[in-house]
Write a structure and sequence with these properties.
single chain, alpha+beta, 6 strands
Length: 146
């Protein structure tokens, strides 16, 4: 199972693509396929991308928002240039996103549906500098991956 893990900040998007399954999780044998960060979202961004154990590659790209950052990294992940073992975004089976503060209700991993998203919006005051950006990252992943 390939899982895309995101962490959206105010002007950045960090990511990892992990290959795992129940046995790998139980024995801590997850395999990182790629990782990177898009910094300075909203203009000429600095993009650092790295597949498996390769050296990180830095470049710049005009990236206007978190949705464009997600699209950029998905295009790279599915390109032959990346060296990552996926041909299409359909091979990404799940997405995880770090949320800074989930209040008392969200203390563990939780599937985010429309109800949970609305509840997280109601909790923005608990982490006003972080949660709005986290929600933008979640929205961007949903728009790109369904």
């Amino acid at each position: 199972m390939r899982i895309l893990v995101l962490n959206a900040g105010s002007s950045s998007l960090k990511f990892q693509l992990i290959d795992t399954d129940g046995d790998a999780i139980a024995s801590s044998r997850d395999r990182r396929l790629a990782r990177g960060v898009v910094e300075r979202i909203g203009g000429q961004a600095i993009v650092t991308l790295q597949s498996a154990d390769d050296l990180p590659a830095k470049s710049t790209a005009s990236i206007r928002d978190h949705a464009a950052a997600v699209e950029h990294l998905l295009a790279w992940l599915t390109s032959t240039d990346s060296g990552v073992e996926i041909d299409s975004i359909a091979q990404i089976e799940a997405v995880g996103h770090r949320v800074v503060h989930g209040g008392e209700r969200f203390t563990h991993s939780t599937r985010i549906d429309d109800t949970v998203r609305r509840e997280l919006e109601d909790l923005i005051e608990l982490a006003p500098l972080h949660n709005p950006h986290n929600l933008r990252g979640i929205a961007a992943a949903r728009a790109a991956l369904g």
